[in-house]
Design a protein that fits this description.
Strands 1, 2, 3, 4, 5 and 6 form a six-stranded mixed β-sheet that branches. By secondary structure, the protein is α+β, with helices and mostly antiparallel strands. The chain has one domain: OB fold (Dihydrolipoamide Acetyltransferase, E2P) (Beta Barrel). β3 and β4 (79-84) form a beta hairpin. The termini are far apart. Helices cover 23% and strands 36% of the residues. The radius of gyration is 19 Å and the shape is elongated.
Length: 123
């Protein structure tokens, strides 16, 4: 009888883990290439130096798109850098207030600069 109960418990535990992994929200989108790390403050202060270069940045997700999660911002002091996820995770999970690392490039816009992601990992 004990063996049957132990076997049932093991089967239940394994089944639970498999179901959880199948329905868990993915936290990584795109493919990281090992780009060099840059500071968000440096990208905000001297964006022209980073145009066309793939870099890795890390920060806390703020001001995430509430409709689909397709963009968010990283802050440095009072300034922010908009991170566009359109190419890798148009419907990203809501992770506002949590850390993330993003690989991509700075791209000029009519009203400044924006960071286009090629890979993102939410923690």
């Amino acid at each position: 009888m004990k063996k049957i109960l132990i076997l049932c418990a093991v089967v239940l535990l394994v089944g639970t883990v498999l179901v959880w992994r199948a329905v868990a929200t993915p936290s990584r989108f795109g493919k990281f290439t090992g780009a060099p790390k840059a500071e968000v403050a440096a990208l905000i202060e001297t964006p022209k130096a980073y145009v066309g270069k793939t870099v890795l940045i890390e920060g806390t997700v703020t001001e995430q798109c509430q409709a689909m999660g397709c963009y968010f911002s990283f802050h440095s002091g009072q300034q922010s850098l908009k991170v566009d996820l359109q190419d890798v995770a148009m419907t990203a999970p809501m992770r506002e207030g949590r850390p993330a690392r993003v690989e991509g490039q700075v791209v000029p816009r009519t009203d400044g600069y924006q960071f286009f992601a090629s890979a993102v990992e939410f923690r």
